[in-house]
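Researcher: Next entry in the queue.
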Amino acid sequence: MGRLWQKTWNALNYMHGMLRLGSRHRLRSFKGIHKGRCFVIGNGPSLTTADLRRLMELGECTFACNSLIKLFGEIPFTPTYYFAQDNKIILDNKQEIADYKGTRFLKAHYASRYHIKGVTYYNMLFPKRPIGFSNDISRVVYSGQTVTYSMIQFAAYMGFKEIYLIGVDCNYSAGNDVITEKSYFNPRLFNNNRSYAPPEVDTNLLAYARAREVCDKRGIKIYNATRGGKLEVFERADLDSVLDIKKQ
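Model: Structure for this entry, 248 residues:
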């Protein structure tokens, strides 16, 4: 029964996304438009406002996600690209997403429920074994049960040869089987009025391993420049050295 439900869910997602022709056309326009490096930003406790400010000052290409959008008007940082795909997170931040003028990508399923104009929707399929890695984001983006995996697929499609992860701690604080505010670098990213189940870390790790395998074959290097955390799938990089920050 579970397998039938998964197939039905995937089919509904796929059909829903394929009908959004305007978004599919916009997604195709991103193919190979970049080169060099980019930064994929998680919202883990290791993230700092100082690091975000430095990325902004250097003009780095950045991918940010989820409730970080709540802080865009308060800290000296806005990303090159913004992503959200969890239904609860999109609904929690619906107004901020609608007001934000930057490039926004949202999961297509349930898009009619959000009614957010001007965003680009991507078609998502959910985990199989092995987990897929998209060759064409205008057709499908594969879920690794984390938006970070989607952002990596976008970065590879856009042509980046070096992808640096920061704030991707892969280390969550949970109590009574719900995630707590200690899992975020800023308490404003946590909604006290909504319960979030702990992330599916095992699936996340399988997805990251798949990303490393595919990107290595394509000559794309993924580094984990997170300050600490527990993610060891990717080669570590020192963020200060990457950004040429002189240690005091």
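Model: DSSP finds nine helices and twelve strands in the chain.
Researcher: Noted, moving on.
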